[in-house]
């Protein structure tokens, strides 16, 4: 019997780490005094969750050499204001230096077809050629969840269609494996069978994917996919990614606000678009 899920899942699994020794060698060689940075380091080995934001400030200051010389008064904006200002004026290139890696699962293949259109990213997705789909799960689209309330028979027909497609996949995989029985490599035989049998699986088939994006691309993803006009499934994912950004790198979420939409779902409004 097939399993069905309704909510996308996402976890942050990778984020920037500043190489502090390298930063200090650069500052010392140029006689720069980045006191706000060095003061924070006095009691810390790493900047923790803030590494990516400090890295972006470093990149922004590099453009204008805006560090004071040793012995001079501190000049320019404070750390938080500096990063926020980069977003406010649309200096998006600077925030590209921080990258974040997400593990995403309990999403449909139709969602990942949209997700991978965001080209400024790196993707590693579950392979249906190498991974057996006999126990695959299916994602129930939000509209189908609503349909269940008003037309249970139509919803049941959709459930049965998914189950039949999974059963047919199993049957075809077995028959195709027999057909390729002369193939010496067991792995190759399975791959050939699965890559043909997967053609019967619907877009609702669950998949898993690793996504690495820079902070600018993450903001762009949120702005486009948490928009009210976006598909509800990917909008839910984008809102969850926005929450992660607000928690782990709040300066990069500057101007992004989660709002309740008329249909009861959530979206994100952006004060500073096209950063």
TrEMBL record:
Gene Ontology molecular functions: flavin adenine dinucleotide binding; NADPH binding; thymidylate synthase (FAD) activity; thymidylate synthase activity
Gene3D superfamilies given in the database record: 3.30.70.3180, 6.10.140.450
GO biological process: dTMP biosynthetic process
UniProt protein name: Uncharacterized protein
Pfam family, one: Thy1
SUPFAM superfamilies named in the record: Thymidylate synthase-complementing protein Thy1
């Amino acid at each position: 019997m097939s399993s069905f899920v309704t909510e996308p899942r996402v976890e942050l699994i990778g984020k920037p780490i500043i190489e502090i020794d390298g930063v200090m060698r650069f500052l010392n060689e140029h006689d720069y005094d980045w006191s706000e940075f060095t003061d924070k380091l006095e009691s810390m080995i790493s900047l923790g969750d803030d590494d990516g934001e400090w890295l972006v400030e470093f990149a922004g200051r590099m453009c204008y050499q805006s560090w004071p010389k040793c012995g001079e008064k501190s000049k320019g904006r404070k750390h938080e204001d500096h990063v926020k200002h980069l977003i406010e004026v649309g200096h998006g290139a600077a925030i590209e230096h921080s990258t974040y890696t997400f593990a995403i699962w309990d999403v449909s293949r139709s969602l990942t077809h949209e997700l991978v259109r965001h080209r400024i990213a790196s993707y590693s997705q579950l392979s249906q050629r190498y991974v057996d789909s006999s126990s695959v799960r299916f994602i129930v689209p939000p509209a189908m969840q609503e349909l269940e309330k008003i037309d249970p028979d139509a919803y049941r027909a959709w459930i049965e269609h998914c189950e039949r497609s999974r059963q047919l996949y199993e049957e075809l995989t077995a028959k195709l494996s027999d057909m390729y029985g002369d193939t010496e490599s067991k792995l190759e035989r399975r791959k050939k069978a699965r890559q043909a049998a997967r053609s019967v699986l619907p877009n609702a088939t669950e998949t898993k994917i690793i996504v690495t994006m820079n902070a600018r691309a993450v903001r762009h993803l949120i702005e486009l996919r948490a928009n009210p006009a976006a598909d509800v499934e990917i909008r839910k994912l984008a809102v969850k990614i926005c929450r992660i950004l607000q928690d782990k790198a709040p300066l990069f979420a500057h101007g992004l606000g989660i709002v309740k939409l008329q249909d009861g779902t959530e979206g994100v409004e952006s004060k500073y678009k096209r950063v």
